[in-house]
């Protein structure tokens, strides 16, 4: 029996199992909405209702933009299930190295000796946090907290 396909499947399942979301409810959920309508905010808009604090993790990978996109997509999907039409993004970043690594090596079998170099490939997980909010129609847009850059004055 060839164990390679079984080991490969087990590795893929363990990597995928690391991804997920969690939530802490802050108020009652609303009817679900389409995840495509969930907007990302940097500040809580006036008049909005906080529904839940959300945390999401990507699958284990090599620190790619795709992992960051997956975290934001998971946050939006979870917010949509709770009826939130917005997320105040607290942050998305690397979660450090994951406990899962991929390596290659060599060994011996019977009277045969095989040599090789072990290669460890570090992997990491992306994680993000946000607050799922409901912004009622007509609520004011969030105030831009970035200072306006004025052109230099010439005298």
Gyration radius over CA: 23 Å
Number of helices: 2
The tally of beta strands, per DSSP, is 9
The succession of helices and strands, N to C, reads HEEEHEEEEEE
Structural class: alpha+beta
Report the major sheet.
5 strands, mixed
Shape: elongated
Output mean pLDDT: 75
Helix content: 10-25%
The proportion of residues in beta strands is 25-35%
How far the N terminus sits from the C terminus, by CA atoms, comes to 83 Å
- Unreliable spans are 5-17
Spatial strand arrangement across the major sheet = 1-3-9-4-2
Helix-strand blueprint:
Blueprint: H1 4-16, E1 20-25, E2 39-41, E3 49-57, H2 65-81, E4 86-97, E5 102-104, E6 108-109, E7 112-113, E8 119-121, E9 124-134
Parallel strand pairs: 2-4
Antiparallel strand pairs: 1-3, 3-9, 4-9, 5-8, 6-7
Task: Describe the fold and architecture.
β6 (108-109) and β7 form a beta hairpin. The protein is α+β, with helices and mostly antiparallel strands. It contains 2 helices and 9 strands; from the N terminus they run αβββαββββββ.
Brief synopsis:
With 155 residues, the protein is of the alpha+beta class. It contains two helices and nine strands, in the order αβββαββββββ. A hairpin with a 2-residue loop joins strand 6 and strand 7.
Kindly list the characteristics that best describe this protein.
five-stranded mixed sheet; 2 helices; 19% helix; alpha+beta; elongated
């Amino acid at each position: 029996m060839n164990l390679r396909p079984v080991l490969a499947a087990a590795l893929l399942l363990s990597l995928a199992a690391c991804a997920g979301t969690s939530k802490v409810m802050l108020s009652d959920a609303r009817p679900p909405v389409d995840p495509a309508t969930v907007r990302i905010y940097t500040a809580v808009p006036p008049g909005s209702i906080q529904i839940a604090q959300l945390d999401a993790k990507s699958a284990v990978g090599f620190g790619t933009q795709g992992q960051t996109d997956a975290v934001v997509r998971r946050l939006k999907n979870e917010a949509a299930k709770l009826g939130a039409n917005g997320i105040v993004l607290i942050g998305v970043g690397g979660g450090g190295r994951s406990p899962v690594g991929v390596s290659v090596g060599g060994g011996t079998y019977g009277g045969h000796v095989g040599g090789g170099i072990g290669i460890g490939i570090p992997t990491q997980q992306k994680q993000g946090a946000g607050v799922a909010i409901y912004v009622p129609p007509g609520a004011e847009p969030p105030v831009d907290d970035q200072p306006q850059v004025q052109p230099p004055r010439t005298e």
